[in-house]
Structures are given as C-alpha cells and as structure tokens.
Specification:
Blueprint: H1 13-26, E1 32-37, E2 40-41, E3 47-48, E4 51-56, H2 58-66, E5 74-76, H3 81-93, H4 100-120, E6 131-132, E7 138-139, H5 142-150, H6 154-161, H7 171-189, H8 193-201, H9 206-209
Parallel strand pairs: 1-5
Antiparallel strand pairs: 1-4, 2-3, 6-7
Helix pairs in contact: 1-2, 3-4, 4-5, 5-6
C-alpha cells in the first residue's frame, strides 16, 4: 500500500477518469515515484520500516486504483520529507494553471522549507544578504536559492517573500510572455492525458538533477 500523505494540490476526478481510460488502453508508460520511510506507525499501532510514500504520480496512482490494478511500476528516490515536499512544490510551480495567489503561496512555503533545511543542517538562516560560510566562500541567501531552484526571477521571489505589490512589465516584455504562453499552451494541448500527467509529476529541477535554468 502506497501512502499518499498531504498534498499541495487537490486530486482532479476528471483527470483521473481520463488517465484511467488511457492507462486501461495503453498501460502505464511513466512509473510513479516513491520514497521509503522508516518508523511509520500503522493504524493498528504497529511500527513499520520501509513504508512507500508517494513523491510524484498521484493521478497515475489514483487511475491505477480505479482500474483495479494490484501493482504499479515505481521508481524509488532518496531524501526525506523536506526533499519530497520541495520537489512537489517545484513541480507545481512549473504548471501552467497556477493562479498568482497559488504561485505566491508555493514560493513562500518553498522558502520556509529551505530555511528549515538550513536549521536542520546547523546553519544560520540568511533570507537576503550573503555571508561567508567560514571558509571564505559566499553562501547564497534563501531567496537566491529559491529563485534558482524554481526558475523564477530573484526579483519576483523577493517581492513574494516581502509581500511587495507587483508592477506591470513593459509592453514588449508582456507581449513576449504572452507569446511564450501561447506556444506552451499549444504544445500542452497536443499531449495525451498520460503525457500531461507525467509532465506534471516530472520537471527537470535542481532538486533532482542539480541543473539550474
């Protein structure tokens, strides 16, 4: 039994229905992602190790259950709860259907998790300014890390974290953004439902492959 846990976005029943129809005809093409968690207290009070928790693939998992599948192909990744939530938020931030309010909420939570990771590692938290790490190296601020790992601009991240009002971009910048959005939506509309689900769950982020946009 794969534990889903709390998620940042609600499950879409319509998406599950469409995905189940596709998986029923074509099978599963993209495995879901899980991590194994130890010391989990089961409903009967038993403490169990190696319990699989979902990292990515909630809609595929729900579709598989709807089809009555007893097994589903998985890819196991390492990391802890903070890593898993960071990955989930980063994926959500790359989706086309987030509202501005949802995006800002995700960014603020992402920053909270980065701060928690620094505290966990015994580091002091620097939200904005950079400070040497004791070896003469400049350590990145939380805001800079959030910008690099989510693909957002540092200015946007700082504005969100400080609750500053956004300013309208110059007309040429706005037009280019709209053109890019149009191209992205055209490409999105050409994908079938499973490819859309896979794309939602798997985004090249530095959390997983250390590549910055």
């Amino acid at each position: 039994m794969i534990e889903v846990g709390e998620r940042h976005r609600a499950l879409s029943d319509n998406a599950v229905d469409r995905l189940a129809a596709s998986m029923g005809e074509l099978g599963l093409r993209h495995p879901i992602t899980i991590r194994l968690v130890d010391d989990v207290v089961l409903p009967d009070g038993e403490i169990c190790d190696g319990v699989p928790y979902l990292v990515a693939g909630r809609h595929r998992l729900a579709a598989a259950k709807k089809l009555g599948w007893q097994e589903i192909e998985c890819v196991e990744v390492g990391g802890d709860e903070i890593d898993a939530e960071l990955w989930e938020i980063s994926e959500n931030l790359h989706r086309l259907d987030l509202s501005k309010e949802q995006r800002d909420e995700h960014v603020r939570r992402y920053a909270e998790l980065k701060e928690a990771r620094r505290v966990q590692d015994g580091q002091s938290v620097q939200l904005e300014s950079k400070r040497e790490d004791g070896r003469g190296h400049q350590r990145k601020s939380v805001a800079t890390e959030v910008a690099e790992e989510t693909g957002l601009s540092a200015r946007t991240v700082r504005r969100i974290l400080h609750n500053e009002p956004s300013k309208a971009p110059p007309r040429e910048v706005y037009d280019e953004r709209e053109a890019r959005r149009g191209r992205a939506m055209n490409a999105w509309n050409k994908l079938d439902e499973e490819d859309r689900a896979w794309f939602r769950d798997w985004i090249d982020t530095p959390i997983m492959d250390n590549r910055y946009d």
